[in-house]
């Protein structure tokens, strides 16, 4: 997973969905620690697929874009 591409997609959909902070986005996942959440966003290869799916669902990212991010 490309870190820059993932961060760009997340930023784009956070703006569209009016989610202003990573803390607000983290509330839609089961990740309890803000540090762990930031670590996942900075290094997506460490991110479990379940967390990836939770983020994508919270942001309502289309399936096609999700698949592109996983390539």
Structural write-up:
With 71 residues, the chain is an all-alpha fold. It has one domain (3-70). The protein has five helices and no strands. It has helices at residues 3-16, 22-26, 34-42, 49-59, 63-70. The protein is globular, with a radius of gyration of 11 Å. The mean pLDDT is 94.
Name the poorly predicted regions: none
The figure for the number of domains is 1
How would you describe the shape?
globular
Report the biggest beta sheet as strand number plus sense, adding barrel if it closes.
Answer: none
Order of helices and strands: HHHHH
Discrete helix count: 5
Fraction of residues in β-strands: under 5%
What is the percent of helical residues? 55-70%
Multimeric status of the protein? single chain
Number of strands: 0
The radius of gyration computed from the alpha-carbon positions, rounded to a whole number of angstroms, is 11 Å
Mean pLDDT: 94
Supply the key terms.
71 residues, mainly alpha, 5 helices, 0% strand
Please give a quick description of this structure.
This protein is mainly α. Helix content is 66%, strand content 0%.
């Amino acid at each position: 997973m490309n870190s820059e591409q993932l961060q760009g997609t997340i930023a784009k959909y956070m703006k569209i969905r009016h989610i202003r902070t990573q803390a607000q986005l983290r509330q839609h996942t089961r990740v309890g620690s803000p540090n762990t959440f930031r670590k996942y966003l900075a290094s997506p290869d460490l991110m479990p697929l379940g967390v990836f799916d939770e983020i994508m669902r919270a942001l309502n990212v289309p399936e096609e874009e999700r698949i592109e991010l996983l390539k």
